Amino acid sequence: MYARNLPAELQSPTVALAERLDAACLFTTLGFEEPVVEVQRRSAASRPVVYVARRPAGPGGTRGDEMEPATATANPNVHSAASRGSGMQVDAVVLDIDGVLVDVGDSYRRAILESVDRVCGKPIDPAAVQAFKNAGGFNNDWELTDAAALFVLARREGLRMDIDEFTDRVRELGGGLDAAKEVVGDLPRVAQARVRDQWDRDALRETFQALYLGSELYRELEGGEPLIETDGYIHDEPTLVDPETITDLTARFDVGVLTGRPAVEADIALERVGFDVPDDRRFTMDDWEEGKPHPRALVELAERVDADRVAFAGDTLDDVRTARNADETDATRVYYGIGVLTGGLTGEAGREKFAASGADAVVEDVNELVELLE
Question: Do residues 338 and 363 touch, judged by C-beta distance below 8 A?
Answer without folding.
Answer: yes
